[in-house]
Design goal:
The complex is a heterodimer of chains A (169) and B (506). Chain A has six helices and four strands, in the order βαββαβαααα. Chain A has 169 residues and is mainly alpha-helical. Chain B is mainly α. Chain B contains 22 helices and two strands. Chain B has a two-stranded antiparallel ribbon. In chain B, α4 packs antiparallel against α6. The chains are: A mainly alpha (169), B mainly alpha (506).
Chain lengths: 169, 506
């Protein structure tokens, strides 16, 4: 996908930052695992290995592996900074991620049906440039279909909010 | 032959009308999942798993495994018609499949792909039919130490075989193990790594991780490419099918080679994706006209499809007999077995004969049903692909959210799905492999349990893993595979050549 392009050129984001961030995040998780394993005991009790015995060793391995990735990235700091993604690509990803997060946040108070309809309508208007006469039926129809399949056919309850209560569902 | 009578019994279980209907539903859903970007075998099965909780296990696994076959078939449609691999294992199919479609030979390419898938799967099922009972009988002798050694072998082979950097493979795997350990320790009852968050008491469910990593992560990746679908249309007529079959019969050597590669890669957890690339490479190397590859050579379709389907199917062999899945999707199916209260492993073949042989028989039937379904309904799937991404994407997000919620009816899971989604995106971009994470998350508890039992037996001496020839061989093999990246680098350095890395194909 990406050639040996230098990240500083042409509006691209380099690999260095994300690489260090992910490795650092993993190191942090490893530290959490190790600390908690020490709390519950990482050794040998009368009845066999303690709860932290296995996780403690995993934590050490995770720390070693992610530390290695982190350190080797620092080591190669100048020589090698491949392209993580173009800025325009990242903008698209964020434009996708933000509505997704809002959607998940809205499920808490509103149930799943209304936010789903809004999400579908938003995407169709924003990226598909559809008119309302197409957006509304699709946005309303898809959640309705899910309602019929999940709650009526397979009897699996989904989260509901004030609107569904109002309709007495 | 015991196997034949067992299989006949299995056919009697699988070939009932309701089960055949579930097969048809499964295949159709599977092809749909395979065709849509962002939904794949692993997360498709994960999302639909909660729907089957109330079904009887045999019907449920028949439907779920048929979703898997359907997804394997479906990936080929998008690759050939749209040059978009619907699944990672159909990337290699685009190399020659799409050029064929552009030359107006889409129908031939599709027929070749579907038939190859079918042949690959058929051989793999035959292998399962006759090898699985043997392997299960052999595995009955296993104690905890042997089981842990086999699990070690599985995970070490990821490190040794993976084309991703070993440190990243290990990191991804350990993250999976660590996540599996969160929550209540089933042996001592102690809480681990919950840090006072009550939602973490029950631990991380691998289904949520799979839906997030593969579903949401994939959507984010697809968005980055700024996809617009532009494809060829196709309609398959009986005449073309027969004509293509005649042509394909000449390439029986490619079939055999690809099947062998696929089965091997499926049983060892190489998986369908590397199998398809390897098989494509081999086909080109052995071809009389290597230069025609990439320009619409039918062998370039046959080879990867046969291998991918053979690998995808044979991945179920270690899952059923040893409880060790050969692919992420097999891992999800294994999780399903556990939820239905079935313990995968050698005892399954003794205690749950109906289930095992029903499943194996359904593999034969499911693939036949699948072949017929895909050959007859191609225009319909091509039409679905013409629905723009701006409509498909939000619907897939909604499906993922519903799938994550229904696992435990918990909103926290939907939130975790988003976290895993972002993680999946970052991991894919930075070339951390996802399969070891999922497998470790599924197998974590089992691996820990067998490790603890082994340690109890030996009073904490690691030497139990060398205590008899069987466990010693397995453990030794595991260590050999683990050190393979170092060994192979040393070997090529000794030969005076720089270590060669397999280039990643986008």
């Amino acid at each position: 996908m990406s050639g040996p392009l230098k990240a500083d050129e042409a509006g691209a984001v380099g690999k260095r930052g994300p690489e260090l961030a992910v490795a650092g995040f993993l190191m942090l998780l490893a530290a959490l695992v190790i600390i908690d394993s020490l709390r519950v005991g990482n050794g040998w009790a009368d009845d066999g290995p303690q709860s932290g015995y296995f996780p403690f060793r995993l934590g050490l391995l995770l720390l070693a592996a992610s530390g290695w990735v982190f350190a080797s990235q620092l080591w190669r700091w100048r020589r090698d900074n491949g392209v993580f993604a173009e800025r325009s690509q990242l903008a698209l990803v964020v434009a996708m991620l933000v509505p997704m997060l809002v959607y998940v946040g809205l499920i808490y108070p509103l149930g799943i049906y209304l936010p789903s309809a809004v999400l579908i309508a938003y995407f169709m208007r924003r990226y598909g440039h559809y008119g309302w006469p197409i957006c509304v039926p699709v946005a309303a129809g898809v959640p309705l279909a899910f309602y019929l399949v999940f709650e009526r056919w397979f009897l699996v309850p989904l989260p509901k909010g004030p609107l569904e209560r109002l309709l007495g569902l | 032959m015991d196997e034949i009578t067992n299989l006949a019994h299995g056919f009697a279980v699988a070939a009932t009308l309701p089960n055949l209907m579930f097969m048809l539903i499964g295949i159709t859903l599977g092809v749909l999942i395979g065709v849509l970007p962002g939904l794949g075998g692993a997360n498709g099965v994960a999302i639909l798993l909660p729907l089957t909780f109330s079904m009887n296990p045999t019907s449920a696994i028949i439907m779920l495994s048929c979703i898997y076959w359907g997804a394997l078939f479906g990936g080929a449609i998008t690759s050939i018609l749209f040059n978009i691999p619907g699944e990672p294992w159909s990337v290699a199919t685009t190399f020659d499949g799409h050029p064929m479609a552009q030359q107006g030979r889409a129908a031939q390419a599709l027929t070749a792909a579907f038939t190859s898938s079918f042949v690959g799967a058929l051989f793999a099922v035959l292998l399962i039919t006759f090898l699985a009972p043997l392997l299960a009988r052999f595995a009955l002798k296993f104690g905890p130490a042997e089981f842990f050694a086999v699990q070690l072998l599985t995970f070490c082979s990821f490190v040794g075989m993976s084309k991703e950097p070993p440190a990243k493979t290990i990191a991804s795997m350990m993250l999976g193990f660590a996540l599996a350990a969160v929550g209540m320790d089933s042996v001592t009852g102690q809480l681990r790594m919950t840090y006072g968050v009550s939602e973490l008491l029950k631990g991380f469910d691998f289904l949520i991780a799979v839906i997030g990593l593969f579903g949401i992560g994939e959507i984010l990746l697809t968005m980055e490419e700024g996809l617009s679908f532009k494809g060829q249309s196709a309609k398959i007529s009986l005449r073309v099918v027969l004509q293509t079959w005649r042509e394909m019969a000449q390439h029986w050597k490619t079939f055999l080679r690809s099947t062998a590669i696929g089965c091997w890669m499926g049983i060892t957890p190489g998986g369908a994706t590397p199998a398809s690339f390897m098989s494509y490479g081999m086909a080109r190397r052995f071809a009389s006209d290597p230069n025609s590859f990439g320009k619409g050579n039918i062998q370039g379709v046959i080879a990867p499809e046969t291998a991918a389907h053979a690998a995808g199917t044979s991945a179920l062999l270690p899952m059923l007999t040893l409880g060790i899945p050969g692919s992420p999707t097999a891992a999800v199916l294994l999780g399903g077995l556990l939820i239905w209260g079935l313990q995968p492993g050698p005892m399954l073949f003794i205690e749950q004969r109906d289930f095992v042989w029903g499943l194996i028989a359904s593999m034969y039937l499911g693939n036949i049903v699948g072949l017929i379904v895909v050959l007859t309904t191609v225009p319909f799937w091509a039409a679905i692909l013409r629905i723009p991404f701006s409509v498909i994407a939000p619907i897939i997000i909604v499906i993922c959210a519903i799938g994550a919620y229904t696992v435990h009816s918990a909103m926290f899971d939907v939130l975790m799905m988003m976290v895993f989604g972002v993680l999946g995106y970052l991991f894919k971009k930075l070339k951390y492999p996802l399969a070891p994470l999922v497998l470790a998350l599924v197998l974590g508890d089992m691996a820990e349990a067998s490790f603890r039992q082994a340690m109890l037996l030996s009073q904490g001496q690691l030497s139990i893993f060398w205590s008899n020839p069987l466990v010693g061989t397995i453990a030794g093999l595991a260590l050999l595979l683990l050190s393979w990246p170092v060994l192979s680098a040393a070997l090529s350095a000794a030969r005076g050549r720089p270590a060669r890395r397999v280039e990643d194909t986008p």
